[in-house]
Amino acid sequence: MASKYPLVVYGISGYTGKIIAEYLTREGIPFVAAGRSRDRIEAELKKVPGNHVVDIVACEHTEAALTKLFEGAQVVANVVGPFGQLAEPVIKAALANKCHYLDTTGEPDYTLMLRDTYGDQFAANNTVAISACAAMWVTGMVAAEVALETPGIDSLDILYAPRGNPTPASTLSFLRMCCLPQLYKEDGVMKQWDPLAKFDVFVPGNHQIQAAVPWGGGFEPIWFENDSRVRNCKVAVSFTSREVVNLVHGRIVEYHELAKTRTAAEMEEITNAWGRAMSPDPDALIKEDPSIQRCMISVFARGNTVGKHLAFYGTSGYLQTGFLIAEACRRILIGRLKKVGYQPATAAFGHRELISAMQEAGLWCLEPVGY
What we know:
By secondary structure, this protein is an alpha/beta fold. The chain contains 14 helices and 16 strands. α3 packs across α5 (about 90-95).
């Protein structure tokens, strides 16, 4: 079945998909809600407030079925992960129909594949491919671009400090991305973090020193890889609970020990099993409370003779992600896309434009707190 509306949200029955649906409904944007089970999609959409203008479609996860589904569509928002395992048929189907493509993942190996294998094809189609159109890693990129507005800044040390519980899909994604090679940029050259790195950090707004890990290395170094403005870029992630960091780090240590005697495919199954064991019951997930689940981004930026520290404060990460996907789709559909090909959301839509939109939605501070 071909798409009835120009926007397809694939994988909408998950937690993030339902938040995307809510923001699309607020904006009055019609969409195709697609996934493997029509009954499940219908049941999950009943939990989403508002009167949806929606066409529900069940679809097999194959390139052929997805290519048929995307016929007539302009934009595909993919929320089916882990993306390194499942996204390629969606990408190929989007390309076959000359659709714009968005997803929510933070998996660095996957985004490098998207960039290097398919980026030029999206550009040739005059369409955009935006990976990690989500609170992680878009908000760090927004903060970085604000820092780079100061002449002379060429180095970025970015810290995410979220407070919240990952969804089942996110848990599977973050466990595989934490265990795979993680990148940073140093003196203009891309390098790999020590795979077992864990360190203490200062999180603005907290007197206690907290623990952090590279958490996949972040997408910011990848997006800035060929950007002459940025000589150095590192990203780390901390939490309000040192126990969470220790738990994730323990899995990373175990992963690298097991990987000595296992194949890559076997290791993918191992991280999936870990993720399922750690995941909350999907039916027990409660919508985030912005007074409890909050996020902040800290950026130390400097050049030879100039430097600054910026702290951005925001609400719940999944609410930000749902809004960012919906806002990106809205901007594409009304012709406000600035660049095509493989791009971060900041290049596709403008970092100041995203700040204004998120502030208007009550999700982010308008201006950073400077130190």
